From TrEMBL:
InterPro entries per the UniProt record, alphabetical: Arc_rbn_hlx_hlx (IPR013321), RHH_8 (IPR041088), Ribbon_hlx_hlx (IPR010985)
Family annotation (SUPFAM superfamilies): Ribbon-helix-helix (SSF47598)
Gene3D superfamilies named in the record: Met repressor-like
Entry protein name: CopG family transcriptional regulator
Domain of life, per lineage: Bacteria
Pfam families xref list: RHH_8 (PF17723)
Family annotation (CDD domains): RHH_NikR_HicB-like
GO BP annotation list: regulation of DNA-templated transcription
């Protein structure tokens, strides 16, 4: 399983907006189009930081990286419980987690960002992932 710190996205822009970005790149304000877009996104997220924080609190979401280990899932299953995981960022299910254990211990999984898990784990949890 390939682990990355970034997720690739695709956006559609109008010709005029793209031309304006290219002009700023040409003038040296940004290194390239991606640099401009990343900066614009970070600036907007900073401007909306209070709204994001309130929403995270309201929905009891975890922020950042959430590693889900085999040991955690085994302990949850042994206790007869299930996890309801909500993450803003990256959720990673350890590569040594079996399909059976994942289905037994994970009741629901909400990820606003990216989920990294083996394909068979994702397939087994598809009815629990939102």
């Amino acid at each position: 399983m390939k682990l990355t710190d970034n997720e690739k996205i695709t956006i559609n822009l109008g010709h005029v907006d793209l031309g304006r970005i290219d002009l700023l790149v040409q003038e040296g304000f940004y290194g390239n189009r991606s640099d401009f877009i990343r900066t614009a996104i970070r600036n907007q997220l900073t401007a909306e930081a209070d709204a994001v924080s309130r929403s995270i609190e309201r929905h009891t979401l975890e922020m950042g990286l959430r590693d889900i280990s085999r040991a955690e899932l085994e302990a949850t299953a042994e206790a007869g419980e299930v996890l309801h995981i909500k993450v803003v960022g990256l959720a990673r299910i350890a590569p040594d987690v079996s399909v059976e254990l994942a289905r037994k211990a994970i009741g629901s999984l909400t990820v606003l960002g990216a989920l990294q898990a083996r394909p068979e784990i994702k397939a087994a949890l598809k009815d629990r992932i939102s």
